[in-house]
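User: C-alpha cells in, sequence out, please.
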C-alpha cells in the first residue's frame, strides 16, 4: 500500500491489532467493579483512539484541501486530545494503583487533573487561536507556538506518577510498584525516540508496551479469579472492599462455609470436591447475579453486594440453605455437603481491610468449630471477640520477642509417697494493656498463628532454667512435667532442640516428663519418631488430658507412655454424678502398667475417693494453684 505522507506507520499499525485484542478480551471478562479497572479501560480506549487518529490525521494532512477545513481541524484535534488524555489517563491509573489517596488527599489528584484539561481547552480553541497547530492557505498544516505543551504535559504526568509511586512505595505491593516504574520508563523512552525519529510514529508502540506491562502485572482479569473454581479470589475481594471502605460505600457480605469440607475431601477425593466447589460457584453466580462471588480457600465463599442487608439478603440465605439440602450433581460428581451461612451487615464492618478479612475468618472458624449447619449474623459481640483475638495475637508476638512468658509450677502429689513428688510447668502471660491472659485463650491463639512452636521452646527453656537455679532434689521433686503441643510433635528437629536447651542449662533430660495430648497422637508416625529421639536422650512421656479427645485406645497404648493424666472434666463429671467412668479408666490404665494422674482434685473428699480407686498421683487446687517459681519453692520448703 502506498502512503501519502513520509511517515513510517509500521510501529503504529502493529500496535492496533494488539490493542483491539486486549480490549476485546478485557471487556469479555467480568472485571473488578473498582475505579482502577475502569481507569485501565480508559487508558486502552484512549490509546487506540490516539493511534488511529495519528495515522488518519497524518494522511489527511497531505491532501487537506480535499476535505472541509472543519473536518481537518476536528481530526487533528482528536489526535491531540487523545495524546494529552492518554498521558492523564496513565497518571490517573497510577494514582489508583498505588493508592495515592492514602498518602495524598483525593483532592490533590483532582487538582493535578487541571493541566490536562486546561490543555484540552487550548486544543479545542486552536481553530480560532492557532495555539497548537494551524492550516495555512499555501503551506497547509503546521505546528504553532504552544505545540510543545503536549509533550510537557506528558512529561509532567510521568513525573507526578513517579513521585506517587515513590511516596506510596511501602503501601503498595512490590510487584505492582516495580511494574509502575517499568511502564513509566517505557513511556519516557517512547517520547524520547519520537523526538529523535520524527518521521516514525513510535509513540503508540511504546504506549502499547506500557499497557502490556500493566495488563500482565496487574490488570489481567484472570489474576483475580480462582483457576479451579472460576469465581473471584481473595485478592479480588480485598481490592473491591478497599475501594468501598475508602468511599464509605455501604456493602454487606454473605459468607458460606462448609463445616464438613475436610471430611468430604477425604471421602470423595480432591478431584470430586473441587468439581463440587466449581458447581457451587456456578450456581451462586447464576442464581445471585447481583452479588460478586469470591472463594476464600477450602470450602469457603463470600458473596458481596453494595447496599445494606435487605429482603434480597434474606432470600439469598434461605436459597443457599435450601440448595445445600440436596447433593451437588453433574455427569461425574454427586457430593452431599453441609453448609453454614453467615451474614456480615454493613453496620459492623470494620474500617480496615485487614480487620474485615480477620472478622470473616473468625466467623468462618466459629462455624467450623460448631461443626453443624447454622445461620449466624456477625454482631458487635463477635466483632469484639475478633478484636480481642487480634490483641492477644499481638500480645503473644510481643511477649515472645521480649521473652516475657512466665512459667508457673503446680504440684503433683504422689499417693504412695504421701507427699509432693513433682510439678507441672504451666505457661502464663501478662500483657501491659490486656493484663493477665488465660492460658486456654493464648495457647489456642498461638496454635492458630503458628507461634506455639516458639512458645513451646521458651516454656521448655524456662522449665530447664528453674531446674538449673533450684536444687529440686532437696525439695523432694523428682521430675518437672512440660506440655508438648501437637504442632511441636511435627517438628523433625524437636529432639535436637530440646537436648540443646537442656544441655545449655546443665539439666539432664531424665528430670523432665513431656506431656502430649490425644490429638498429637493422630499422626502416629511423626510423633513416634520424635518420641524415640527424646527417649534416647533420657526424657519420658505422659499422656495429658485424657478424656477430651476421641483417639483410638489401641493407638495410644502403642506409644511409649508411662503415665496418663485423666482430664478434670472426667473427674468432675464423676463427682457430679453425671458419669461412672472414672474408676474404670483408672483400672484400665493400671492393668496395662501405666501410672495414673487424676487432675482437678479440689477437696478432701475427692482426694480420698480417687486414692481408694487406686490412682498413683493427684493434681489440683486441693494441693495448690499454679505458683510462680519462687513461691513454689517457698511452698515446698514450708511442707518439709
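Assistant: Sequence out:
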Amino acid at each position: 500500500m502506498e502512503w501519502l505522507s513520509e511517515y513510517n506507520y509500521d510501529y503504529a499499525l502493529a500496535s492496533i491489532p494488539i490493542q483491539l485484542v486486549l480490549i476485546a478480551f478485557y471487556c469479555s471478562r467480568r472485571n473488578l467493579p473498582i475505579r482502577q479497572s475502569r481507569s485501565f479501560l480508559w487508558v486502552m480506549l484512549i490509546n487506540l483512539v490516539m493511534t488511529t487518529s495519528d495515522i488518519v490525521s497524518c494522511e489527511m494532512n497531505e491532501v487537506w484541501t480535499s476535505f472541509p477545513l472543519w473536518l481537518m481541524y476536528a481530526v487533528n484535534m482528536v489526535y491531540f486530545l487523545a495524546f494529552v488524555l492518554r498521558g492523564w489517563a496513565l497518571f490517573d491509573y497510577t494514582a489508583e494503583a498505588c493508592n495515592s489517596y492514602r498518602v495524598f488527599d483525593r483532592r490533590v489528584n483532582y487538582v493535578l487533573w487541571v493541566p490536562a484539561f486546561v490543555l484540552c481547552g487550548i486544543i479545542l480553541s486552536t481553530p480560532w487561536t492557532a495555539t497548537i497547530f494551524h492550516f495555512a492557505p499555501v503551506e497547509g498544516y503546521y505546528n504553532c507556538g504552544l505545540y510543545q505543551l503536549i509533550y510537557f504535559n506528558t512529561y509532567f504526568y510521568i513525573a507526578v506518577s513517579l513521585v506517587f509511586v515513590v511516596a506510596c512505595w511501602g503501601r503498595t505491593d512490590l510487584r505492582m510498584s516495580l511494574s509502575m516504574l517499568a511502564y513509566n520508563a517505557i513511556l519516557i523512552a517512547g517520547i524520547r525516540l519520537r523526538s529523535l525519529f520524527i518521521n516514525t510514529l513510535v509513540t503508540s508502540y511504546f504506549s502499547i508496551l506500557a499497557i502490556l506491562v500493566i495488563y500482565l502485572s496487574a490488570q489481567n482479569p484472570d489474576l483475580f479469579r480462582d483457576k479451579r473454581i472460576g469465581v473471584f479470589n481473595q485478592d479480588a475481594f480485598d481490592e473491591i472492599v478497599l475501594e468501598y471502605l475508602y468511599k464509605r460505600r455501604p456493602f454487606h457480605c454473605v459468607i458460606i462455609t462448609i463445616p464438613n469440607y475436610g471430611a468430604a475431601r477425604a471421602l470423595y477425593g480432591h478431584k470430586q470436591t473441587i468439581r463440587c466447589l466449581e458447581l457451587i460457584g456456578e450456581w451462586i453466580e447464576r442464581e445471585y447475579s447481583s452479588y460478586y462471588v469470591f472463594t476464600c480457600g477450602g470450602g469457603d465463599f463470600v458473596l458481596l453486594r453494595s447496599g445494606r442487608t435487605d429482603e434480597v439478603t434474606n432470600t439469598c440465605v434461605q436459597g443457599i440453605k435450601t440448595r445445600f439440602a440436596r447433593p451437588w450433581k453433574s455427569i461425574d460428581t454427586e457430593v452431599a455437603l453441609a453448609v453454614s451461612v453467615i451474614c456480615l451487615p454493613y453496620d459492623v464492618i470494620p474500617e480496615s481491610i485487614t480487620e474485615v478479612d480477620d472478622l470473616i475468618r473468625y466467623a468462618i472458624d466459629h462455624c467450623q468449630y460448631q461443626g453443624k449447619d447454622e445461620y449466624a449474623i456477625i454482631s458487635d459481640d463477635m466483632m469484639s471477640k475478633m478484636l480481642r483475638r487480634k490483641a492477644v495475637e499481638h500480645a503473644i508476638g510481643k511477649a515472645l520477642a521480649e521473652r516475657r512468658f512466665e512459667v508457673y509450677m503446680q504440684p503433683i502429689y504422689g499417693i504412695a509417697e504421701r507427699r509432693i513428688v513433682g510439678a507441672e510447668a504451666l505457661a502464663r502471660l501478662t500483657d501491659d494493656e490486656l493484663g493477665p491472659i488465660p492460658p486456654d485463650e493464648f495457647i489456642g491463639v498461638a496454635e492458630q498463628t503458628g507461634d506455639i512452636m516458639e512458645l513451646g521452646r521458651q516454656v521448655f527453656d524456662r522449665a530447664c532454667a528453674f531446674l538449673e537455679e533450684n536444687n529440686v532434689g532437696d525439695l523432694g521433686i523428682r521430675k518437672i512435667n512440660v506440655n508438648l503441643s501437637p504442632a511441636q510433635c511435627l517438628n523433625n528437629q524437636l529432639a535436637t532442640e530440646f537436648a540443646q536447651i537442656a544441655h545449655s542449662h546443665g539439666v539432664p533430660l531424665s528430670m523432665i516428663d513431656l506431656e502430649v495430648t490425644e490429638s498429637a497422637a493422630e499422626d502416629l508416625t511423626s510423633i513416634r519418631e520424635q518420641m524415640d529421639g527424646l527417649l534416647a536422650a533420657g526424657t519420658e512421656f505422659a499422656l495429658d488430658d485424657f478424656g477430651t479427645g476421641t483417639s483410638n485406645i489401641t493407638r495410644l497404648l502403642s506409644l511409649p507412655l508411662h503415665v496418663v493424666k485423666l482430664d478434670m472434666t472426667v473427674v468432675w463429671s464423676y463427682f457430679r454424678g453425671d458419669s461412672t467412668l472414672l474408676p474404670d479408666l483408672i483400672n484400665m490404665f493400671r492393668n496395662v502398667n501405666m501410672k495414673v494422674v487424676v487432675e482437678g482434685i479440689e477437696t478432701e473428699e475427692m482426694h480420698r475417693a480417687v486414692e481408694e480407686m487406686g490412682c498413683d498421683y493427684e493434681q489440683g487446687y486441693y494441693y495448690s494453684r499454679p505458683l510462680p517459681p519462687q513461691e513454689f519453692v517457698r511452698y515446698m520448703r514450708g511442707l518439709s
